[in-house]
Amino acid sequence: MLRYFKKQYAPAWLNHLLFASGVFSTMLGLTVIVGWYTHNIVFLKVLPSFEAMRYNTALGFFLSGTGLLSAYFNRKYLSRTCGVIVAAAAFLTLTEYIFGIDMGIDQFLMKDTVSASYPGRMAPSTALGFAFTGASLFFMYGPAGRQFPIVLGLFGSIVCSLGITALFGYLTGIVAFIAWGEFISMAAHASAGFTALGAGIIAFAWREEMADDMGALQWLPAIMGVCVVTGTLMLWRVSVAQEHSHIERTVQLKTNVVKDHVQDQTESRVLALVRMANRWEVHGKPARAEWESDAGLYLNHYTCLNSIRWIDPSFHTQWVLPEGTEDGLDSKFGLESDLYNGLVGARDRREVTISRPFSLGDGTRAVTASVPIFHGKDFQGFITCTFGLKEFFDLVLNPEIRDRYSVAVFNGDDELYRRSENTFEGGRWAQETGVSLYGANWRVRVWPNKELLAGLKSPLPKVVLFTGLVTSLLLTLVVWLAQTAQKRATAAEAANLALGLEVAERKRAEAEAQRHAGELEYEVTERKRAEEEVVKKAAELERSNAELGHFAYVASHDLQEPLRIIAGYLQLLARRYKGKLDSSADEFISFAVDGSKRMQRMINDLLTYSKVGRVNNFTHVDCAGLFDRTVPYLRASIDESGAVVTRDRLPAVFAVETQLEHLFHNLIGNAIKYRRGGIQPRIHVSAERKGNEWFFSFSDNGIGIDPEHSERIFVMFERLHGKDEYSGTGIGLAICKKVVNNHGGRIWVESQPRMGSTFYFTIPLQRG
Asked: What's the rounded Cα separation, in Å, for the pair 136 and 204?
């Protein structure tokens, strides 16, 4: 009741703002809904060039405004219901965009006959705004406390920022603020609606915080940060849009330059043929020497021309220069060929024709320009010239284009020419234009090289974004520090009022402290006695551990002889009586022999394990030499498996040489043993100094280990495979761990099944 009373007496402008936001959003949604039913385009678009507000969007504003009005009148269940409906519609729409599906909700209530793209579906920015609005309406009546006003204030700031950003885009004409990529834009009146909704949510959150006696606005730093980030994003999008527009204009300009050059160079070659044909038509057929002299001048002037020829009315080459040109062109003049059809069309229309691209005898792509010759009404053949496309376009492109841009020319889907310094295809920066000359229709695509594109891009957008984000962070921090200072000042005043009571309490505490002093002295005495007891227990534990280690050593050593006798007699029994008893007896004897051998290996490994902890002669050990001595001991396994064992340069460390030899032997031996079938084992040993330790690594390409067993494999007698798959007792890695622990280091493994393993261990630079 007290909380509700405080809300009613919150600053009037907060209640007025909450009420006005609810009324505006409700009326906005209702107006557009009426516009859909009455087909009033003004209600849907505001201006003809603007995006239409979808029916679902209008319904979302109507429900959101109703939810705010319900919050104003303290009708929390109605407010939450509106919030759930709005949020559900928004999340379903976002799901449609994210996964590219149509759930059938876009035109469920109203058939959209106005929108060209995504009919009936609200814009993604609109859906995001409704998602935060719906969540805010649902959480408006959470438990009293600091977190809910802060969350509501942040949500309201985001909703308001979405509206302001789109509204700014409509006012400035910058599409980047309105549309997200290729998706539809937020409607103009929707941006005003989200601005109002965000303001209403902020007003409600502020009112709640004042009702909870929280003093200063706790989420003011957050809303300040969101506002600055919004402004930063606006400036960043503007600078990015300007940069993109500049790049596109520059590339388009160069594309037009390439087009003009192609047209000019093609025209100049065709006009040369036209002049030859005109002289023929005026003066009659020239002497061959005169014709060749004229054609030779053009060949020398236009270096990319392959040949100039006179083709008689029967479509056979009579004169050709250079003489003896063998380009396989005559064979292409056959009936129904592209060149033949092109010549027929040029004759019938009395027009110059450029043929479709074709391949010469050497594979060079080329085209032929043909000019029909008419002396009076008599058709006397064609003057044609053939030029290779690569040489032609290489000549056309000036050095600036060649060095800074990539160019490709297409005839339909057929690529005629490409000049590209790298594999970069230009992406969105590529510009295309068409070249239509004498029946030839080519597409010219131009895009900047990476170096030029990097030069055209400005660091300004990144600087704006970075500066804005840093400014947002600093502003948020400054406001937070100011609020913290204000709280501390308030707390200091309260502390001064309580200081008198504290002084009296302190005097009483001093008397109490004197009483406790005697108790403390007794406690100190007891603690010293306990520490002495701990030292005594530690000494006993160390002695017990030593005795236990000695016992393990003696037990392992003394068990060797009787087990050796048992194993020997079992093997003798197997040899003498094999086949003389029944098959079960032979099998039982075999099991006993195998078990005795495994027990011998296990006792030997236990003996080795007990010896590891008793050696203490640390010396400087050359690990490279140790590696070179260890590998020959494994020669049989290496030769059998075909393993390749390599190493990097290894250091000298302060260690127990025999223990380190055990460590190298076990890790390399395990890498060979646990190899993958059909793959040559490769083991590599390396070391690297990090800080005060040497980091050793043993890498292989074997069967690998599941990460969940990475600790289990270092436990004594733990095996991940049956003895029939891989031999061993499960003590080797336990010995490795004990060796590394004796040297004050750590050992671990990084591996994945069938991806090989890398065992790491560390050795300190100095002992202790």
From this structure: 10
At residue 39, φ and ψ (nearest 5 deg) are 60, 40
* 630: Cα separation from own chain's centroid: 45
Cβ–Cβ < 8 Å for 672, 698: no
pLDDT digit string, tens, across residues 712-728: 888 766 666 656 566 65
SS3 441: strand
Give the tens place of pLDDT for each residue, 423-460: 666 677 888 898 888 888 889 998 888 888 778 777 76
Average pLDDT of span 544-565: 59
CB contact at 8 A, 200 and 157: no
Q: Quickly list DSSP for 280-318.
A: HHHH-SPPHHHHHHHHHHHHHHSTTEEEEEEE-TTS-EE
Contact yes or no for 598/722 (Cβ under 8 A): no
Name the token pair of 114: 């106005």
DSSP 716: T
If you compute the radius of gyration of the chain from its CA atoms, what whole number of angstroms results?
Answer: 45
The token pair that represents 233 in the structure block: 């994003």
321 CB-side CA count, 13 A: 16
Among 93, 91, 97, 237, CA closest to 161: 237
469 exposure class (CB count in 10 Å sphere: 0-12, 13-18, 19+): middle
Peptide bond preceding 322: is omega within 30 degrees of 0, i.e. cis?
yes
First to last CA, the chain: 69
* CA–CA distance, 138 with 129 (Å, rounded to integer): 14
